[in-house]
Amino acid sequence: MGYPAAVWRMPHAQELNLLISIQDGIRQQIADLENLPACFVIHPFESPSSGESYILEGDVLITFSEDMQLLRLTNRLGEEQPAVQQLFDRAKQLSAQDEVKPVVWNGLSRRSETDPASRAHYTQAVEKAVEEIRAGNFMKLVLSRTKPGHYSKDFRPFQAFLRLCSAYASAFVSLVNLPDRGEQWMGATPETLVSVSADGIFKTTSLAGTQSIKNAEGDLIPPKKVLWGQKEIEEQALVSRYIIECFKKIRLREYLETGPKTIRAGNLYHLRTDFEVQMKEVNFAELGTVMLKLLHPTSAVCGMPRESARTFIKNIEGFDRSFYSGFLGPVQMAGESALFVNLRCVRLSEGTATFFAGAGITEDSDPMREWEETEMKCETLLSVLT
Ligand SMILES: C=C(O[C@@H]1C=C(C(=O)O)C=C[C@H]1O)C(=O)O
């Protein structure tokens, strides 16, 4: 019906959540986590100068089980509201149709296995980045690329979302409808940027270092047997150091740091360190908002030093990252907020599917291996959706 909407599943959760914003457009506002009403926030990689995020207001909030049983419904506008009535009538009609029409899976299609021009552009950018790092201008740069696909009119994004949910239990899986832009964004990200629980626990993570879960023979490497090279260890340590620098800026010393440990994200292993703060103990109620401003974009998706890395990325990548490597997630849902880095994602618009993936570049980077890494990251979605 053309409303802004989001459907998501939290990591390791069974419940699915749907938010429908009965509004003409999407409000832009600073993501002030403590003072926003229940909503879904989406924010691009490049923050606008106003610092504002897109806020999808939680006018209708529905929680349901994986087998589509309704668990909870909140309707902020009231039953009598004509737009809400229309919405519920339409939902009834559709569910009646679905009962008679068996659901057929219509996946996305890849445009090509590998586009040589795109690979050449990316590997040349990596070479340039390595030169810059060796010259001492940067410590780390994260370079990304896109991969095109397409989908037909019969493609049902919600079915695709359900597939991602069942394939990736530990990911934050989401599908966001942005009618103003004629776009939908879908993804299964492994990376928490900032979360604040109802009982005042703040969390953030540093995630970096990537390898396939399979060895050259195609056998699964057990997590305990995973070995990391110096390049990945340093690359991830840099992100941890960046987070600690952010804590230092606000003179926060009482944080718990756990890791790094090997975690699995679909077809990939990463290194992750978890940071936790008891907000009541440090008497810092706005920690979530303050850290969100300081952290985004972290050196897991941008680089160090941050501002010059951002300029370098903009000049060399040759496309707008838009919401890729920005952040998204529910805010103030039963007192909890959880924002994730928008990775392993695809933009759906007018039949074109655009997959986004990047890789952290250090002085030891090999351009072809970084390209392969972005291919594997695109596979996280492609293997489930095609
Ligand atoms: C940039 C991406 O992922 C990030 C970069 C990683 C890396 O360089 O090893 C690993 C995890 C993410 O923090 C992506 O998925 O596109």
Automatic annotation (TrEMBL):
Keywords: Isomerase. InterPro entries: ADC_synthase (IPR005801), Chorismate_C (IPR015890), IsoChor_synthase (IPR004561). Residues 119-377 form the Chorismate-utilising enzyme C-terminal domain. It is an enzyme of class 5 (isomerase). GO terms for molecular function: isochorismate synthase activity. Its EC number is 5.4.4.2. It comes from the Bacteria. It catalyses: chorismate = isochorismate. Pfam families: Chorismate_bind. Belongs to the isochorismate synthase family. This is isochorismate synthase.
